Amino acid sequence: MLRGTVLRGTVLALTVCYALTQAGVVAAQELHEPSAPARLELQEPNLLVPSLHASALMLSMRIGEAYIWPDPFADPPRDWGAHYEAAFTQPPKWDSQARAFEWDGDPWYINVIGHGLFGSELYLRARHCHLGVAGSLVFTAASSAAWEYGFEANGVRPSGFDLWFTPLAGLVLGEGRYWAWRAADSVGQNTVRGLLKGILDPFGELERAAGAPC
After folding, report:
1. CA of 126: how far to CAs of 93, 122, 123, in Å?
2. What 3-state DSSP class applies to 159?
3. Residue 40 lies in a domain
4. What is the rounded distance in angstroms from the CA atom of residue 179 to the CA atom of residue 73?
5. Number of domains the chain contains
6. Which of 78, 186, 207, 209 has its CA 20 to 30 A from that of 95?
7. 204 closest CA partner among 120, 134, 80, 133
């Protein structure tokens, strides 16, 4: 009887040990087994919003040009054909003998400040709409070409300086504005946060408040 009791106790102990061992093995496997990679939710690029934004911006600029500099930007439509012909049959304006940043005949502040802000606005809107750095740069370059050869070419020939400076300045200034705008999210005070984001991206904030998705 004693032998049977000992045998049953031994079997029970071995069973418990085996169960504990298996539980430990399973736990260890779960601990070391690589978990399934988390799905990265990528936001879909939106080309419509920055395109509409750029079109409205350039139309406003073109109207402003015609008001401020009526000669040649307010020339009658009958003269547009000759201007467009010159734009597409002659090289962009570039005078290497002119002063720095005035190689196209425009004052330096229009070329540097004006086109720098213009490029950064185009770039920032595309960046906010998930086109990425490269996509936003391509969008800015394409929009700059559309401005030079489409909106403005019915008044003057395209500028060789503006064609490359606008997207380059857009990349530098626009990317800086983008990250500063994102950093503003860390500001705890709602009014200050809204003020900072409005200063960094005024048109974008207005459009998002009106329902734009990006």
Report:
1. 28, 6, 5
2. strand
3. no
4. 36
5. 1
6. 78
7. 120
More confidently predicted of 42 and 188? 188
Q: pLDDT value at position 42?
A: 66
Other C-beta atoms lying within 10 Å of the C-beta of residue 96:
6
Q: Are 29 and 122 in contact (CB under 8 A)?
A: no
Q: Are 46 and 126 in contact (CB under 8 A)?
A: no
Q: Mean pLDDT across the stretch 64-77?
A: 96
Domain membership of residue 18 (yes or no) is: no
| Distance in angstroms (rounded) separating the CA atoms of residues 71 and 79 | 12
pLDDT of residue 43: 87
pTM of the model: 0.80
105 falls within a domain = yes
Q: Residues, the chain, total?
A: 214
**pLDDT tens per residue across span 135-145:** 999 999 999 99
Question: How many degrees, rounded to 5, is the angle at CA 138 between CA 134 and CA 140?
Answer: 115
- Cβ pair 98, 26 in contact under 8 A: no
| Within a domain: 79 | yes
